[in-house]
Amino acid sequence: MKQARLTSSAPVLLVRDVVAAANYYRGALGFVYERFWGEPPHFVILKRDHLHVMLDEAPRGHVIVPNWQIDPQIWNIYFWVDDVDALYAEYRQRGAKIDYELHDKPYDVREFGVQDLDGYDLGFGQPKPRSS
């Protein structure tokens, strides 16, 4: 029997204001979206390159707790990229909220992080070439 393959994933984040959050992802992070679902809007699917992020508006009064508030060293989403220096420069130019600067990590990754409007931490990293 042929085993089915996973082909992609789409993390889902609960947000306070789905329209404001989607517009931040579009303006500061270069994602696009085609439409919102619901009236008033409460859900959106964002896309950049071949990756998706879904945002769902949390019920009014819901407390949003980003992962870093529980474990200071962990992200809500981590993206592997092919040119982390170029993406960092793009995000600085777009005005993204950089929460930790581009640097080399001891686990052989060059990375940086941004925070969105709800305080979620998004990490972006590129493996460093291995020396022979």
Automatic annotation (TrEMBL):
GO molecular function: dioxygenase activity
Keywords, in A-Z order: Dioxygenase, Oxidoreductase
InterPro entries linked to this entry: Glyas_Bleomycin-R_OHBP_Dase, Glyas_Fos-R_dOase_dom, VOC_core
Pfam family, one: Glyoxalase
Domain of life per record: Bacteria
VOC domain residues: 5-127
Record protein name field: Glyoxalase/bleomycin resistance protein/dioxygenase
